[in-house]
From TrEMBL:
GO molecular function, a single term: hydrolase activity
Domain of life where this protein originates: Bacteria
Name by which UniProt lists this protein: Metal-dependent hydrolase
Organism: Allohahella marinimesophila
TM ranges: 33-49, 56-76, 82-104, 111-133, 139-158, 179-201
Pfam families: YdjM
Entry keyword set: Hydrolase, Membrane, Transmembrane, Transmembrane helix
Keyword Acetylation: no
Keyword Transmembrane listed: yes
Length: 230
């Protein structure tokens, strides 16, 4: 399997190209494209959140804890600064240590979370939270979910690529354990991911703004024109 650095770089490179394309469009600003790039990079290491011990696990939960703590600012208007600090600290500790330990007990590396259905569920969660709680517009909320999905799938593809030993002309035993539609061993978790994805999809507005932006970008001739060729 690919290591943390490979996933971090892979997610950053792939989402970087995609984010530059979004900035080239007329729908997303440069600042929004940078946020999308960060989302895709995070998505590139997110599947390793189920690792029992890894740099990715600590890094991801620390980042999630910071984000969760900052979200407090959205829901604590009018509170004293001390109250906000206490809430932020409590949420940070709860996510970084409490939820992380719970996640460790309930998951197995390369289990249900290393699957396509988990990738879709995670992306939809990001879009839903962005729209409903962070008050982003529909185009950006769907784009954030889309970039997390892009990074997530990049991670799974890299894991499969590392399972092929080109020099030794063999396929490692881990091949097929990463980029799978769902997990048969943890079918109940995959069922929850699938059901959750359906509910989130029904709760979200149409992804048309994001889809239209991507389609327009792909179809317009100027996207593929090489200036030095005249």
């Amino acid at each position: 399997m690919a290591n943390f650095n490979a996933h971090l770089v892979g997610g950053a490179v792939v989402s970087g190209f995609a984010a530059s394309a979004m900035a080239y469009s007329t729908v997303y600003s440069l600042n929004e494209a940078i946020v999308l790039w960060v989302a895709g990079t995070i998505g590139g290491v997110l599947p390793d959140i189920d690792a029992d011990s890894s740099v990715a696990l600590s890094w991801i939960f620390t980042l999630l804890a910071f984000v969760a703590a900052l979200v407090v600012l959205q829901f604590a208007p009018g509170q004293s600064l001390v109250t906000i600090w206490v809430l932020m600290l409590g949420i940070f500790v709860g996510v970084r240590f409490g939820i992380m330990q719970l996640f460790l007990r309930l998951t197995r590396h390369r289990g249900a979370y290393h699957s396509c259905v988990a990738a879709v569920f995670t992306a939809l969660c990001v879009s839903y939270v962005s729209l409903r709680y962070l008050h982003q517009d529909e185009a950006l909320a769907w784009a954030l979910g889309g970039f997390v999905l892009l990074g997530f799938m990049t991670h799974l593809v890299l894991d499969e690529c590392y399972a092929i030993d080109v020099v030794g002309a063999r396929v490692k035993r881990s091949f097929g354990s990463a980029i799978k539609p769902f997990s048969l061993q943890a079918w109940w978790a995959s069922l929850l991911f699938g059901g959750g994805s359906y509910l989130l999809w029904e709760a979200l507005p149409s992804p048309a703004p994001f889809v239209d932006a991507v389609t327009t970008l792909i179809m317009q001739p100027s996207t593929w024109h090489f200036a030095w060729l005249g």
